[in-house]
Give the backbone structure.
Amino acid sequence: MKKQNFKIYLLSALFIGFYSCSSNDDVVTDSPAAASQFNVIDVTHHDGHPFSTGKTTTSLTGKYVANPGGGVMMQAFYWDVPSGGTWWNTVNTKVTEWSNAGIGSLWLPPVSKAQNGAFSMGYDPTDYFDFGDYNQNGSVETRFGSRTELESLITKAHTENMQVYADIVINHNSGGQLENNPFTGTQTYTNFTGVASGKFPRTSADFYKNSYANNDEGAFGGFPDLAHVVPNVQDWLWKRADGVGKYYKNTMHFDGWRFDYVKGFGPWVINSWNANVGGFSVGELWDSNVNTLNDWANNANSSVFDFACYYKMNDAFDGNNLALLNDDMMWKRNPYKAVTFVTNHDTDEIWKKELAYAYILTHEGYPTIFYRDYEEWLNKTKMNNLIWIHNNKATGTTSILYADTDEYIARRNGYNGNPGLIVYINNSSTWQERWVPTNWANAQIKDFTGNSTWIPTTQGDTWVKIQCPPNGYSVWSINM
């Protein structure tokens, strides 16, 4: 009797070890049975080419070459970085390491002198041409350093094969002198004729309300609202050869732009800037509605931060419902104009950041890494591994293979000979295993994160069983 029970137990153990169990403990005995659990959703439909920042080389060295998976951006600051004029030098010491890790671009904070001088994060701009070289608003240097240090940082980044994006604040200004305003009948702080650089002088006629209109799409924080309909404003921002856009691009050698608070003015402004100045651009349109994001991006001819993705990740990972990752996002609607992110200097809501970075660094769009996540809060080795996976394996269109409360599995379908990948995210407290449909027949695959030691071979029908650690992720591709 005991021998018979032992045989039954041994056969059962072998059976379960060879096949997989679903999360609801239904035994799946082969890939056709597994197929019944899957409703594969082909999310994107295009030729598979990666996200492009619009340039294949930098403006100085000609060395930058895009990776098969596209680029990765570093937000190279956070709110209230140390004051004292040291930040440009701090970032300068890190760009070689970042470049070696596969980061292709830097997003810098606003670089010009603002109302609070050496204490300002730059979002209250006074003089667009004071990069820390005029004694103005209480200091010569900006919070981040001097013009010389800024130029050294940009040069170093270009030498290390990285592009550099300037944060552009053109909705509002601050730090003007008081003047009589004929359009309001009051005194307003709209006299910027005395800026130290002597460039882009402006008065109340250049702010709302004025002779053109009473207002535009939105004002911010009570600051004077710059009126982009005024010819003087257009000239100095994007038309003149010595204006803001072209000076930043051709003299300071910025490669692109992050536009602040684009809700405050029409998308035609960014469209005109891009048409006249060029370079990569992304807008901060703080809205979770995908239609709003997509319409703005198309009308502005610009990329846009994927706030729809951000909020869905927050709900999915921290709300313990990965099925929400099936919902619409900007990268699904328009992957070539979606810039994805997990955290930025304004918002830090997602708690399970490791899972969120595994998501954006394996999916389409242009992923952004937040300085403090990379340098201080998360495991840098794991982050570098995900960056490598993004650059080398995250290619092609996207198909969602499976999603429920605890599990999410998606496939990048490969491009130009690159096999793509399968990413498995597990939000539960136990290991999970599933049979999945791949694009690879009779191919040995492995988990490029190292979280699983399995090295399975796909079947002739391309199916294979993979696994994922608890509260973690695995990323599978051909073992080559």
Summary: Residues 301 and 432 are 43 Å apart (CA to CA). The radius of gyration is 26 Å. Confidence is low (pLDDT under 50) at residues 1-29, 57-64. The first helix runs from residue 2 to 18.
